[in-house]
């Protein structure tokens, strides 16, 4: 459950308002995706039928680590998921399946037993053991690791091993979110001996890694290509890599990405910034796949002691924001307004229950008259609103200008606080960077397909994305009920109630739910067109199509 603030850097700064347009603005043709179509977006591409010698996969920047404990954004998650296995595996449709654990079951509401798969080996040929699993989980739970996943494992009080294949997790209270977490970075297993030997160098170009995944870590020089080499002895014969080597390359320029795809130098990418969506659609010999995403774009109140501390101001801003124009401009119409606070791509279970709630909910509409009245009722006319942005990040800056326009149109006195693309991430990691800034935007996602995973990350008092200190006891109670409910339908009902409170209280203001965008060149196919690529080794399916 982690933010992504950084996007592909635009060639030129986008300083105009949303309605005036932005460089690389995609054409929507005036046709927005329908609600029914959005709920039924595909989750896979056509299966590959042949192998490939190599592929170069573009990331929006170079990965900084292959340590799952430190992975928190698209580049790291994509690479780590290609190299390493989690205890459970996310399927393209968001459901969970066995991974390194061939079986998992709650023997009591506070006891989760994992039966490890036989015959699994690390890249160096050493067998996977319960000790490796226990080490990996305890490492993620240990605050000294400095990782991102201690809070999601905070109900685990003990990790014990038994025999050659059993690991038992003892919980302080029931936690039916835990299997989802064990399918994400928090549940990835690394080799204990290797990690202890490398110490703090583990996951760096100097220290390397040791996992069980379908690809091994090959040559990696910081700031240059990271090579993943097929593991011919991979335990899952149905996921044996079809492409011999995958070179992961940071591509920070949208123009470089477009050129690389057109020449064949770049084989594919999951698009995390759509500022050049139109140009990418026109690249010859490529296929653009629009699929099911787990992302939501939000405006984040950073300080609830200022003007955004008044719910009426947050409600007014939401009413003033032109979601349709934003979806057209940034996503070519391939995004929908948030009837609920999280993307339908997060429905990994009880899909019919979530879909019924979604279809019954009202789509937010722009209402300037009502927004202006709320501002007057709040006594906020003329009050300042400082919005964080970076003119070097096209999508971020387009969003900031849209919020600037919305705020000023209803009587606030809004301004932009501009930082460099490199420093925009500091809004999420450094409280000092947020000083004097009322809000900023991001696209974000949960670690697995459950709306509660994302909601909890920014509304729970200790959530990793709760930057404002927001605390609502009713919302906390709904999330706790969801977390402790074994029955999927009842868990979904509690999650829907939590979502209803979010949409009413607006601790974060949902902007739009975008689709996922995958582009490949030539005849490459097989990669999922869903968010599963972020947490499971599905790039092993990448190969030649018909």
Q: What report would you give on this structure?
A:
The protein has 546 residues and is an alpha+beta fold. 29% of the residues lie in helices and 21% in strands. β3 (88-90) and β4 (96-98) form a beta hairpin. The chain is globular, with a radius of gyration of 23 Å.
Strand line-up in the sheet with most strands: 9-10-11-2-12-20-13
Helices and strands: which structural class?
alpha+beta
Strand content: 15-25%
Radius of gyration: 23 Å
The tally of strands reads 22
Q: Can you summarize this structure?
A:
This protein is an alpha+beta fold. Helices cover 29% and strands 21% of the residues.
Annotate the secondary structure layout.
Elements: E1 2-4, H1 35-39, E2 52-59, H2 74-83, E3 88-90, E4 96-98, E5 101-108, E6 111-116, H3 130-141, E7 156-162, E8 166-171, H4 178-181, H5 192-198, E9 215-220, E10 226-230, E11 243-250, H6 254-263, E12 268-270, H7 277-281, E13 286-291, E14 296-301, H8 311-320, H9 323-331, E15 335-336, H10 351-360, H11 368-377, E16 384-389, H12 394-409, E17 413-418, H13 421-424, H14 426-429, H15 431-434, E18 439-445, H16 451-459, H17 473-483, H18 488-505, E19 509-514, E20 516-521, E21 524-525, E22 543-544
């Amino acid at each position: 459950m982690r933010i992504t603030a950084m996007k592909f850097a635009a060639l030129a700064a986008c300083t105009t308002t949303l309605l005036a347009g932005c460089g690389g603005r995609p054409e929507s043709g005036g046709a927005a995706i329908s609600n029914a179509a959005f709920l039924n977006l595909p989750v896979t591409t056509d299966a590959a039928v042949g192998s490939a010698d190599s592929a170069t996969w573009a990331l929006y920047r170079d990965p900084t680590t292959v340590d799952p404990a430190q992975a928190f954004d698209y580049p790291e998650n994509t690479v780590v998921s290609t190299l390493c296995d989690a205890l459970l595996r996310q399927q393209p449709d968001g459901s969970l399946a066995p991974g390194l654990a061939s079986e998992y079951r709650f023997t009591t509401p506070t006891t989760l037993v994992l039966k490890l798969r036989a015959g699994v080996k690390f890249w160096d040929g050493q067998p996977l053991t319960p000790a490796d699993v226990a080490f990996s989980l305890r490492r993620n739970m240990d605050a000294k690791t400095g990782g991102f996943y201690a809070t999601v494992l905070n109900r685990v009080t003990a990790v014990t091993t038994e025999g050659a294949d059993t690991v038992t997790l003892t919980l302080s209270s029931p936690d039916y979110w835990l299997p989802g977490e064990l399918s994400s970075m928090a549940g990835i297993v690394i080799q204990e001996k290797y990690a202890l030997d490398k110490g703090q160098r583990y996951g760096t170009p100097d220290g390397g890694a040791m996992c069980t995944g379908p690809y091994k870590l090959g040559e990696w020089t910081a700031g240059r290509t990271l090579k993943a080499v097929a593991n011919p002895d991979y335990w899952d014969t149905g996921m044996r890599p079809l492409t011999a080597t995958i070179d992961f390359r940071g591509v920070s320029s949208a123009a470089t990405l477009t050129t690389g795809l057109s020449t064949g130098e770049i084989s594919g990418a999951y698009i995390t910034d759509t500022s050049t969506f139109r140009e990418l659609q026109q690249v010859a010999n490529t296929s653009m796949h629009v699929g099911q995403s787990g992302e939501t774009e939000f405006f984040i109140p950073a300080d609830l002691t200022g003007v955004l501390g008044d719910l009426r101001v947050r409600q007014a801003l939401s009413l003033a924001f032109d979601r349709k124009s934003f979806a057209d401009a940034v996503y070519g119409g391939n995004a929908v307004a948030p009837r609920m606070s999280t993307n339908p791509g997060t429905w990994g279970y009880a899909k019919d229950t979530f879909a019924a709630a979604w279809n019954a909910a009202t789509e937010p509409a722009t209402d300037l008259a009502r927004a202006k009245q709320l501002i007057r009722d709040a006594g906020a006319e003329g009050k300042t609103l400082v919005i964080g942005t970076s003119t070097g990040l096209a999508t971020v800056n387009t969003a900031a200008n849209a919020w600037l326009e919305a705020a000023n149109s209803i009587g606030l006195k809004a301004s932009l606080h501009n930082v460099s693309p490199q420093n925009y991430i500091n809004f999420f990691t450094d409280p000092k960077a947020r000083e004097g800034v009322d809000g900023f935007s991001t696209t974000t996602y949960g670690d697995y397909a459950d709306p509660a995973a994302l909601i909890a990350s920014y509304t729970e008092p200790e959530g990793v994305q709760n930057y404002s200190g927001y605390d609502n006891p009713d919302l906390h109670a709904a999330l706790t009920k969801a977390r402790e409910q074994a029955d999927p339908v009842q868990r979904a009902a509690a999650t829907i109630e939590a979502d209803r409170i979010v949409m009413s209280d607006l601790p974060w203001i949902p902007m739009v739910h975008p689709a996922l965008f995958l582009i490949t060149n030539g005849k490459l196919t097989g990669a999922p067109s869903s968010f599963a690529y972020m947490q499971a080794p599905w790039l092993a399916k990448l190969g030649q199509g018909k």
